[in-house]
Design brief:
Layout: E1 3-7, E2 10-13, E3 18-25, E4 33-39, E5 46-51, E6 57-59, E7 67-72, E8 77-82, E9 91-98, E10 112-113, E11 117-122
Length: about 120
């Protein structure tokens, strides 16, 4: 079955950087979407960045210019490089997968999730 395993979260000061990883397995790779989501306490989960099978990225306005999504197709691993972190970036970060689609910015349509990795940014 599909498995998504995130890693790389932690605690940093404002202005710092972190790199998240998500190893995907259990499915035949094809035309798929992968994305990073986050959920802060008391808030709904939001899409942060997505990437399609042609490696075209898309970003939420709140992270544009600071975060970079990428993937290693040989390892089927998704990354999120987060720079210039702010306290408002504090959240649980989740990796998401949507199979057989090019509509990668439709964040409500993702149906596979990892367990999450915590990111905490202090001021």
């Amino acid at each position: 079955q599909v498995q998504l395993v995130e890693s790389g979260g932690g605690s940093v000061q404002a202005g710092g950087s972190l790199r998240l990883s998500c190893r995907a397995s259990g499915y035949a790779v094809g035309i798929d979407c992968m994305a990073w989501f986050r959920q802060a306490p008391g808030k709904e989960r939001e899409g942060v960045a997505s990437i399609d099978s042609a490696d075209r990225p898309s970003y939420a306005n709140s992270v544009k210019g600071r975060f970079t999504i990428s993937k290693d197709n040989t390892e089927n691993t998704l990354y999120l490089q987060m720079n210039s972190l702010k306290p408002e970036d504090t959240a649980m970060y989740y990796c998401g997968l949507r199979l057989r689609s090019w509509s990668c910015r439709a964040f409500s349509e993702y149906n596979y999730w990892g367990q999450g990795t915590q990111v905490t940014v202090s001021s």
